[in-house]
Amino acid sequence: MNTTNNNQKTKKSNPPRAHIQRLAPMRLYTLSKRHFVLVFVVFFICFGLTVFIGIAGPNVIETSVARTDLNNSLKLKPFNLSSPPLSTYNQQLWLTCVVELDQHDVSLKKNVTMTVRVLGVVKDGSTPYVNNQVHNRTRLLSCAQKCSEIIVAHLGYLNYTQYNIFVSFEDLNKLTTSTIQNITFTWKTYNPTFSQVEIWFRFVFVVLTFMVTCLFAHSLRKFSMRDWGIEQKWMSILLPLLLLYNDPFFPLSFLVNSWFPGMLDDLFQSLFLCALLLFWLCVYHGIRVQGERKCLTFYLPKFFIVGLLWLASVTLGIWQTVNEVHDPTYQYRVDTGNFQGMKIFFLVVATTYILYLLFLIVRACSELRNMPYVDLRLKFLTALTFVVLVISIVILYLRFGAQVLQDNFVAELSTHYQNSAEFLSFYGLLNFYLYTLAFVYSPSKNALYESQLKDNPAFSMLNDSDDDVIYGSDYEEMPLQNGQAIRAKYKEESDSD
């Protein structure tokens, strides 16, 4: 009878081995406090290096002023404007204008109707029409001490080495009691020197990302994919998307006169950024979910929220690109009646995402703060992500200032960088953020040896999987408990043996 009871106890305390999962351990578990400080120091050094290189780099936008003298004429005649010589390194072309009044204390907001005709200059000197039509557009003239800049036309890609643009205004003098002293037109293009810097730095980030991706995959090669932690699974998705975010096809925009490479770059960027948003939701929720994460209840709500953000951004981007191909004067911010509704929809979805993420973070930290190793994962991811978000907000504030919440924040030129430091800081920040996560989430050198000690109770806490540490691998239905309760349960079972 004693033998039978002992056998029953043994069967109860030692469940089938099929319930025990072997997880690829993370280097995060083996780092000391000094190593954590070193990781953050290296991150800030790399990011600071890119910022300093950007500060020393060239300006992004190159301007050329075509000043026109009206000579106090009561009638505004059509303006014939010739662009400076262009190359593929100029990437895009803008034509803007500023109305100058003789009285600087005048405040007004009026709609101005203008007629624009765009012609391209070919090598034989002929000037064929671009899109073979004349464009009539209404723009808002806003003056308060100084009149705001009006975007006349924008060419997303350059088919010709020079353009002639004819601009005429209808009844502009009748809109204000003040006399129009002058209208200043300005050509804006990308600086060819910056284009070369952008090509080289994108190439460097593509090579670094490819190397990091290969090293991360190589470190996990001895572990089955089902044994990877949720962070490791997501890093295997984010690193290839980061490769696309850096856009290895970017040089095609200088070799092919087409809108397709530019739209492809926008698509890759929106895809990576939305995947990063989805990563934060899944990790903060999945780290405390017991058992299998079902697609319907776990992934579907998150895909729905982030998918709406991605759909809104891609729709606006593609809509703008397609319409600009047919009409260089088109602007979705001004010419789309539903733009205000689209912006409200985007803000509502973004607010829902932020509230949902904050809820998951607070709940995860409150439930898992006493769990060994799990609280370390939460603290590191939260700390590094918080640093990245703070730096991003600071860059945005320095870039836009108080205008970040105003409507003109969405203006065309506001979506582009004004100097090399802004470009390199954003690209460097996201790249080094992913590189740091890949380093701490990759298995250590002794990971395979440690995982083989899984059956030894002395190593169970070190090598348990996500769910094993939180819930105990031997009891899939065990409710959430702290680490001391788990250790007490193991000790009680071992004493009973």
Query: Would you count the extended β strands for me?
Result: 9
Radius of gyration: 30 Å
User: Which outline best applies?
Assistant: elongated
Distance between the amino and carboxyl termini: 15 Å
Biggest beta-sheet profile: 5 strands, antiparallel
Mean pLDDT: 77
3D structure, described in words:
The protein has helices at about 1-15, 35-55, 190-220, 230-245, 250-255, 260-285, 295-325, 330-335, 340-370, 375-400, 420-440, 445-450, 460-465, 465-470, 485-495; strands at about 60-70, 80, 95-100, 105-120, 135-145, 145, 150-155, 160-170, 180-190. By secondary structure, it is α+β, with helices and mostly antiparallel strands. The strands form 2 sheets. Strands 2-8-4-5-6 form a 5-stranded antiparallel beta sheet, with no helix packed on it. A hairpin with a 1-residue loop joins β5 (about 135-145) and β6 (about 145). α4 packs antiparallel against α6 (about 260-285), α6 runs antiparallel to α7 and α9 (about 340-370) runs antiparallel to α10. The chain starts with a helix and ends with a helix. Residues about 5-20, about 400-415 and about 450-485 have low confidence and may be disordered.
SSE topology:
Layout: H1 2-13, H2 33-56, E1 61-69, E2 79-82, E3 93-101, E4 107-121, E5 135-144, E6 146-147, E7 150-155, E8 162-170, E9 180-190, H3 192-219, H4 230-245, H5 252-255, H6 260-286, H7 295-326, H8 332-335, H9 339-368, H10 374-400, H11 420-441, H12 447-451, H13 460-463, H14 466-471, H15 483-496
Antiparallel strand pairs: 1-9, 2-8, 3-7, 3-9, 4-5, 4-8, 5-6
Helix pairs in contact: 2-11, 3-4, 3-11, 4-6, 4-11, 6-7, 6-9, 7-9, 9-10, 10-11
